[in-house]
Specification:
- By secondary structure, the chain is mainly alpha-helical.
- The protein has one domain.
- The protein is about 55% helix and about 5% strand.
- It has a two-stranded antiparallel sheet with strand order 1-2.
- It is elongated, with a radius of gyration of 16 Å.
Length: about 100
Amino acid sequence: MSGQVRMLDGYIVREQNRAAAQWRAVCASDDALRRRVEAQLSDGRLPPVQGISKSHRGTGRPCIVCRCPIESADVEPEVAHKTCYKPWREASLARRKTT
């Protein structure tokens, strides 16, 4: 029985961590996220999005934008959360249009 309890405890901790990461990604205002992406693009910490991305289930790797893990329940376009990818892509497209 204690093995099942440990498995359940591990599951609960993973789900809490996943929910916390999603909460941080969702709660960050769009403007704050856009400013963060713009700053990262400007100083070279974030490469511009190129071409068309393919989405797949999260791999547990950290998001290139917010650095939180992308869990398997999340959609991962490129190496970012879906909510982080959208402003990254938009800022990258806007930069290409101005250059």
